[in-house]
Amino acid sequence: MAATDSPARTSDAITGFESTFADELTPLTVEWRGADVPHPRLLVVNEKLAASLGLDVEALRSDDGIAILGGAAVPADGRAVATAYSGHQFGGYAPLLGDGRALLLGELIDVEGHRVDLQLKGSGPTPFSRGGDGFAVVGPMLREYLVSEAMYALGVPTTRSLSVVATGRGIHRNGVEPGAVLARVAASHLRVGTFEFAARNGDVLQPLADYAIARHYPELAELPPTGGGNRYAKFLEGVVERQAALVARWMLVGFVHGVMNTDNTTISGETIDYGPCAFIDAFDPAAVFSSIDQGGRYAFGNQPAVLKWNLARFAETLLRLISPAPDDAIAIATATLSTFDAVYEQHLNEGLSAKLGLADTFVDHELIDDLLALMAEHRADWTGTFRALADELRGRPAPLDILLPRDASDPWVARWREALARHGRDDASTADAMDLVNPLYIPRNHLVDDALRAAHEGDLGPFEELLDVVTHPFERRVDRVKYTAPASEEFNSSFQTFCGT
Ligand code: AMP
Ligand code: MG
């Protein structure tokens, strides 16, 4: 596709860009730039993240900085591009998706020496926009900012958010909504969908795989390209391992991604694209919040199985690199995919053991399964229960009493305390260790809703307060009690999230 030919405004408020992706994988990119921004206003900027990228926050806050963050100017030393990808959406193949409303400004090297992408979301139409307008609106961009930063603070691998700029452009959604641009930082924007596109278009697949290996699995780069144990077979193993670990982390914090299409599954192992995502309050494997997920394909408890399906689509793209003999390639890929369940279970069970204060000791499957069954039966609050169990060890039974009836919880608690005693764990230090892995504050759906509603009315105060709380998820603060309470069942039974808005 031809690049845009009108001259771009440039800014040097952010410098130091590299563009290895655009340089090495040019066929997957179109040089592009953002739409004009009528009235830019910086709504939020992530000072800590900026510092970790070696960026000058004052420069980001300047008119020239806001021009880059809002998409009105491209970095003087960068090479802004929209990238091509495909994807399986709800199981059906879409041959050309791509950055329909995003712009990859380039790569920065953070203070630890890691290469990261800086991408704008909502910066205007591109050759990949199809029927869409290329824009985004304030609410969902603040939502991605808040939830991605909360996930980071929870220790879940994720893209991060650098800023949200309101553009002053009216965007037609349900009525006219205020436009916004999110600046997002990611280990990369390589997706399973990028490989699906490359496998079916031209001869960029092997360069793409080598690029992804060099960037995310450098320890494999020296392996031979062909033969047993070649770098592509190991690459598949690496992605399976990282994604299995990631989905286990989602399950441990009660996160429902909502739209686990293959274009939203990264090669780096980071969570990406916070569209219709949500957190469960009550433990319920069938929980679905997305308005468009009518079959419950992406329900909370389905996420590991869906991820395995997505990884099978990824494996298909690598077959011809894994071996020129199709039967061999399929046998190797199938064997690798079949490790997914065990890898996932191990991450999940280790995480659950840690949540129960049993880290470094053993995984007691029955103990864990029985607790989950109890929680599901009584719709106990996922986040609250693990903090209440720590309080139980401190001799404070009240929090658990609110969540589970005593006649149901007592026998389980007795077994759990026996397991702790058997492993020589004393109550006080176990409770403290549990509080370090069990968050007190998550971005509960009703809290996010309230904060975004206030932001929509021009008051960013509740958003800033919620952001502060959920980015310190383990620290109890006496004046923040309301942030620990689940929504009413009534709220959650009708709560819906929306995609692509
Ligand atoms: P997402 O649901 O954000 O993962 O997006 C799926 C696909 O739809 C991607 O190719 C996006 O670029 C595209 N898309 C989503 N919203 C818009 C929009 N407002 N305008 C153009 N493309 C969009
Ligand atoms: Mg996406």
From TrEMBL:
Membrane-spanning intervals of the chain: none
Record-listed E.C. numbers: 2.7.7.-, 2.7.7.108
The encoding gene: ydiU
Cofactor requirements of the protein: Mg(2+); Mn(2+)
Superkingdom per UniProt: Bacteria
Protein species of origin: Gordonia westfalica
HAMAP family named in the record: SelO
Native organism taxonomy: Bacteria, Bacillati, Actinomycetota, Actinomycetes, Mycobacteriales
Binding site for Mg(2+): N264, D273
Keyword annotations from UniProtKB, A to Z: ATP-binding, Magnesium, Manganese, Metal-binding, Nucleotide-binding, Nucleotidyltransferase, Transferase
Ligand binding (ATP): G98, G100, R101, K121, D133, G134, R184, R191, D273
Enzyme class: transferase
Name of the protein this chain belongs to: Protein nucleotidyltransferase YdiU
